[in-house]
Batch of 4 targets.
Target 1
Amino acid sequence: MMDNRKLVVRVEEKKAADAKKYSAEMEMASPGIKKKEKSKTTVVKEDSHQFERLCATFGISEETMAIALEYPDNIKLGHFWRFMGLPTCCFQLTYPTSPRIRWGHVLKHLIEFVICNFLAIYILTQYVIPQMREAVPAFRNSDYLEIFVLTLKMAVPSSYIWLLFFYGLFHAYFNFWGELLCFADRRFYLDWWNANNLGEYWRKWNFPIHSFLMRHCYFPLRRRRVSGATALLVSFFISAVFHEYLMIGVLGKVNGIAFTLMILNVPGMILQRYLKDSVSGNTNNILYWLSYLILGQPFGILFSFYQSNPDL
């Protein structure tokens, strides 16, 4: 038995020596030719069991896994231009695609987008701007009763504008480009209007931005063992800065309202988690519609207009 084992070892050693000698001879015969390095995909694929195990672990196809193993060496300029046109904030080499462009849907979403913009402009000029002009003297004279009455008057038209903005952007505009570019991932929002708490609302309201913040901010911090509350605060801080930046473009000045309202969501979410056994989801939903759409947003619009036009 021992002799057989020694014989096998000698045969393997001889094979290894012959292979080494052959490699050295080839290098001497072709000194200017370098051996081609194996790609990461080739190395992994040589172990078929490891490759199949990776595909099964992540639940993706072998083609997608091969692309992932080559990342980022396989990025091209065309990937960037495609990403810039797609209605998503998360870069990927491959996206789910639809087989063809449905031109009827393209025309439908374009018409919806135009109608939403027309209605929003009409409501703004006919109902919102007159209320904003009336609010300037009330703020200047500290007439709080008049400010409260104007806030209530602003509640309905401002809510209509906000809902038209949501439908026009997240449904009509995003689906227009998604259909035109055969982008099959059309989950731009969920039923945020039925949200039982602020956390659920922000998860459902804006999927492209939510996915971006989760992928590039929240989860990287959690992987570095940052607490969930701190990672949440940092994510909302980035979102608050972005919202304030948009308001600066609209108003031409910094007033901090958008930033403050976004940051206040963090303690609000923590409080709702603490009171989840005492306050029902329906109550939270009613409080959201009252505090944000009926009071918060109209007052923010009136106050921002006053700050931009104090001498009107």
Target 2
Amino acid sequence: MGATVTITASCTNSPLSYTWTGCTSTGSNNVCTDSVAVAGVKPYQLVATNASGNSAPASVNVDWKPLPTAPPLCTVSSSSGTINPFTNTNITLTATCSNSPASYAWTGCTSSGSTCTTTSANVGPATYGVTATNVVGTSALATVQVTWDKSTGGGNFCGPNTAYIDVPWGAAGPNGGRWLTSTNGGFPQGKVFVFSITVPAGTPHAASSQKFAMAEYQGPPAPRTLMLSENACDFPPSSTYLDGTSGTAPLLEFNVGSGPGAALQPGKTYYFSIRNENCSQSSCDMSLSIPWH
């Protein structure tokens, strides 16, 4: 409400005219506009005509919201979560605002939308903020502090296309016990996912190992590299990693103190880093799970 919506039709086979229902078009136009005074869902329909006849009706519903009565209220979060990102890698900041914001203004980051991608070459804390504006006014500044850590890994360390997910010890993923790359920005060619796991102090050795397992999800098989290290993105030719493997669905075993699998030490943080090596489409997604026992 209080705004105008523009609806555009895309038709094949050289239409000569367009007939709209629910909105106004100037002449035989594939674009129509509308505004309403009452909130709710309103349907719009189009029939296009060429020399051979009429098309089947095409429709879309628009959910009109009431005008806000207060400025937006915002929070801002970082894709790095509770772990510190490494310098010269990218993080995505996301503003979550109520009351139908129409525009956003960021501090410490450049964007005009609700998300902003940034990096830093400097070690230490940095504060990022956002305000949102609607027809009533502008929100208070919402901020998040991100502490950047120095990159210390070997060759091919984290580049600009990196996503970070923190996995508490013993926790299962949010999607039926799995983590999905499709809900974390997708997994295109060259992207790296970094899963951080901290072994709690006093964790005992187990008789059988844990498994960090990957499976294809909504995409064709794609070769990947999976590394386990005390440094994120610790891929070959570095030699500082603890274990690594490759394949379309790689798996690594780990344990506390000693094998089977890589031996992790209580009180330390470790990183599982996964990189797509040959994705032939926009995103070669996968799921990841740790069946803790």
Target 3
Amino acid sequence: MLSNAQKSAGTHAASSAGDREVIVLRRHHPMVLHLASHTMNRLSALILVVYIATACFLPAWAAGEKGWFGFSVSVDAEGFSFNPTLRAIKIQEVVPSSPAAAAGLASGDFVMEVQGITVAGAKADALKAAMQKAVGETLRLRVKRGSSEVQEVSLVAVLKSPT
């Protein structure tokens, strides 16, 4: 039986009939769950941990698979920090039969804009976030090849096949 102090502190208890297994969960912070157990076997603990992890985190995983476009880049940036200011992004490699290849991207192309954000002067984190898409979402780029005009390219993210 829980005392009033335990109830007000957000402590919950459950007891299984017969084997006197008691599980006490204390919630000290909304995202931190502490587990204390009396006479709990390892299998019961594992099942409880998997259940909690599934209930808490599965919706985030199911929201969408990370998309893949099939190209790699080299970045010219200034500043020695975790979020440098970019000068240029150059396409290094395009994977055959990828969305990037289907859109006509080639090694040596310069990415001028990502989702309407101009590359020169942009922070790396802003462009990284703009380029991360779920499967089925579209990435809009403005690309320059050699001395030609800047072209708008749209790529649809796909699920990367295991290689």
Target 4
Amino acid sequence: MLRSLLLLSGIHGRTPHVERGHEDKIAGHKYKCINKSIYYAYVQGPLCDWAVEYLPQSLSPNVITLLSGVCYAASCVAFCGFAGFDFHTCVPAWLIYCVAVLIQLGLTLDNMDGKHARRTGNGSAMGMFLDHGLDALTSVTIVFLIGKAYCISNSAVIMGLFTLIVGGFWYMSLESYYTGCMNFGKFTGPDEGQLLASFFCVFAGILGCEFCKLSVNIPCFRMGYVPLQLSTVIVCVLLVVKISETALHWQDALGSAWGSAHLQRRFCRAFFVIQVAFIPLLVGVWTVYILSSQEAWGPLFPLVYTAASAQFLQSIHSLLICDAAAAEFQPIFRNQVASWALISANTAALRLTGGALVSELGTLVIINLVSWSSVICQFCSIIAELMTILDVNLISVKHQTKRDS
């Protein structure tokens, strides 16, 4: 019944995402990860090892994964419920502290699902896709939560944080696709990064809303002094370590990918260039749109952020399923290209005629509806397809020989 509902949930249900001939690779998929994270080694790892011993064998690892996603979703709903959808309304300190705890709870559950899958012998490509697919959603919600907690109304700063966090996740997944192994250094986004996010929340709660809204003057080339919120400066300073780690990871990922056997095949180097360029292209298009528009982006920017997030999620889901199936990767840009064409035409009409084809609000609403519908349909149809190939259920345990998750 659940499989039928998933297949009927979207337009992608009739289109197979796993190429014919790759079904056996899905069944034999083994997730490989090297995690050198300090926080994981000394805190998260031992905590999860202890906690999974108390979980019943009948509990599906996918349920733990979904509960992890619920923690982040609940955090966003709570912030929006108490402080609206914008990035300048103050969030109560007690709620910020609660979200800091929820982030750590979500991280712990995210680390527990794989351990429980190996413990019960229920690891599969579907579990990997579900886990990493929700991790991608987590990466965009973390930026949203930090922006809300610190009342960062500067859209350029939010897009900068977005680029850093989703870029790290994208290139890490790209490295896994080309090398067959996901590598985490001593300071990683999934572990230390989320610990840092919790610290940001606690710090914002201690400082208070009014302090976070204070402005400081920063000298800028040819622009004199530019007023920025003090919270923006604090977040940017604290992210220096993360930026350094991400840059090193990108270098390793791109170097490993460029020399891999995948790129020896015909046209693969062209696909590789597209893959590498995707994040700069995605962020660049939306940044140019913001800069070229004549609208005040304070109230509209959250819609820009959610649209960019949806387009990132659609592409990362395509990459993840190709990784699980060991298939050739052909990025799905249809939705992105259509959206970018719409905003380009709108901007051109505004500049040439003085009137937009569609209002900024209407444009963003349309793009969000199309993008998020596409993300949900694609995600559900991939899960349904994997369930059919592997003959497994999403929330029940199948007793089988143990294998790596």
